[in-house]
Amino acid sequence: MLAVADGKIVEAVDTLPDNTPPEIVRGEANRLVLRVGERQYATYAHLRRGSLRVRAGDRVQRGQVLADIGNSGNSTGPHLHFHLLDAPSAIAGEGIPFVIYRYTLLGVLTGLDEYDERGAAWRPSGPTRVRTLEMPAGGEVVRF
User: Fold this and answer.
1) Is there a contact between 60 and 7 (Cβ–Cβ < 8 Å)?
2) CA terminus-to-terminus distance, the chain
3) 3-56 pLDDT tens trace
4) Cβ count near 4 (within 10 Å)
5) One-character DSSP codes across the chain
6) What pTM does this model have?
7) Whether pLDDT at 117 is above 80
């Protein structure tokens, strides 16, 4: 998982266990909060336990590897929960609009009831395709 912009890490948690599909342990997830501007915070959740490469107080650059995606917290399989907020809390903050400039579509989920060692199973959707100025659709597997 990569830093969306230059900024400073203000919260870093990666001590919570990952779920073993199909079991789900509800509660908080491993997460990072990155301050990217005045009243602008990028929040990443459901990170893999022990995978953080940064700590609170670290300065990071756009594109820097921060952690691995996992399935900690209320999660049925590995995925990234991303928000841009006006406060460093997903509960207290309000969402801020953002644009995804480019991503590569790799495939689609085949069903949340099918699991393998990576979590929910997915299949390639043909040749990879670069998409610009779009939001990924639900169930799409993408690379930023």
Assistant:
1) yes
2) 9
3) 999 999 999 999 999 888 777 777 899 999 999 999 999 999 999 999 999 999
4) 19
5) -B-SSSEEEEEEE--SPBP-TT----S---EEEEEEETTEEEEEESBPTT-----TT-EE-TT-B---B--BSS-SSS--EEEEESSS-TTTPPB------EEEEEEEEEEEEEEETTEEEEEEEEEEEEEES-PPPTTEEEE-
6) 0.81
7) no
